[in-house]
Amino acid sequence: MARKKITIIGAGNVGATLSQRLAEKELGDLVLLDIVQDMPQGKALDILEAGPVYGYNTKITGANGYEETKDSDIVVITSGVSRKPGMSRDDLLQINTGIVKGVTENIAKTSPNAILIIVSNPLDAMTYVAYKISKFPRRRIIGMAGILDAARFSAFISMELGVSVENIHAFVLGGHGDTMVPSTRYTTIAGVPVEELIPQERLNEIVERTRNGGAEIVNLLKTGSAFYAPSAAVVEMVEAVLKDKRKIAPCTALCEGEYGINNLFVGVPVILGSNGVEDIFEIKLNEKESVALQKSANEVKQLCNKVDALLGL
Ligand SMILES: NC(=O)C1=CN([C@@H]2O[C@H](COP(=O)(O)OP(=O)(O)OC[C@H]3O[C@@H](n4cnc5c(N)ncnc54)[C@H](O)[C@@H]3O)[C@@H](O)[C@H]2O)C=CC1
Ligand SMILES: O=C([O-])CC(=O)C(=O)O
Asked: Which of 176, 241, 297, 300 is catalytic?
């Protein structure tokens, strides 16, 4: 069977760590692209040289141009500026809109059939940029955030209860920002609702820590943002697509009426398979959850209006 081709745009913290993780899993051959001369070539060669020790045969190429990325099956966009302490993700809107626009124009030309996974922040708005510029169908444009947010929620619950992360199914909806909606009602531990195991007041603190999970790391690192957990979350998406798992995972996808949201990218449970977003998985929300999701969607809408102005749409 021919190997799949995965391109990673941006060979910084997220892109390079993601490349390492993907290489170790032998999910396909990789191209790592960055605008910095020689750097992606150096990181690609370094990861390739770990292959004999780890026992993987992944081919990985570094690039500064798009010729090498031609006909990729999946392209992950991590290029862009990361925030520093004191900044919000939204502060990156203007600069990263320009970067994601330029990258997407190139990818749409060289890999017209690719599935795009967007990582650059502000995530929901950058996913919208990639959609608008590529004009790809909605199933082939997926933003990474929900898996990361749910992983943080799970990690905190695991620490609280002293049980394995494998027993925890955390559920998060909404945009990748302060208004994200971690659902305590649908979060379970070995099938038991978390609300039955952790007192509501403590649970509220854990939800708040989850909402601020990105900023917590930014404040510790000081020079940039998280990359180990984010790259792990992207691997889960790539794997679900390449193995056609039809896995339900929270991702940023274009809602066209689902959850009462129209023409907006927002975090919802989707079914990930070989076509990308195979479907949006709709579940019943109660009044409180619906209101919180709508509030989050409205914030994303504001940002997308700014994107429209920047792109002249
Ligand atoms: N969706 C999410 O949950 C997460 C999103 N992020 C976002 O991902 C982005 C990348 O984060 P890091 O890797 O930590 O940043 P980084 O600064 O380590 O790497 C970014 C890389 O992008 C490259 N780049 C810039 N313009 C480019 C272009 N036009 N073409 C190709 N490469 C280009 C830079 O040279 C740099 O190597 C940031 O916007 C960050 O906010 C980071 C973590 C989680
Ligand atoms: O917080 C940031 O800027 C990066 C990010 O999106 C995250 O780690 O959730």
From this structure: 176
For atom 24 of ligand 1, the residue with the nearest CA is: 79
Tell me the pLDDT band of 256, cut-offs 50, 70 and 90.
Answer: very high
ipTM value of the model? Answer: 0.99
Residue closest by Cα to atom 9 of ligand 1:
120
CATH classification code of 5-143 = 3.40.50.720
Question: CA–CA separation, 115 vs 51, rounded Å?
Answer: 26
Site to probe by mutation for ligand 2, drawn from 95, 96, 210, 217 as the one with most ligand atoms within 8 Å of Cβ, is 217
State the pTM of this model: 0.98
Distances (CA, A) of 115 to 9, 53, 131, 158, 301: 13, 31, 11, 33, 24
Domain 146-311 in CATH 3.20.140.10: no
Q: Mean pLDDT over all residues of the chain?
A: 97
Q: Do domains 5-143 and 146-311 have the same CATH topology?
A: no
Q: Structural domain boundaries of the chain?
A: 5-143, 146-311
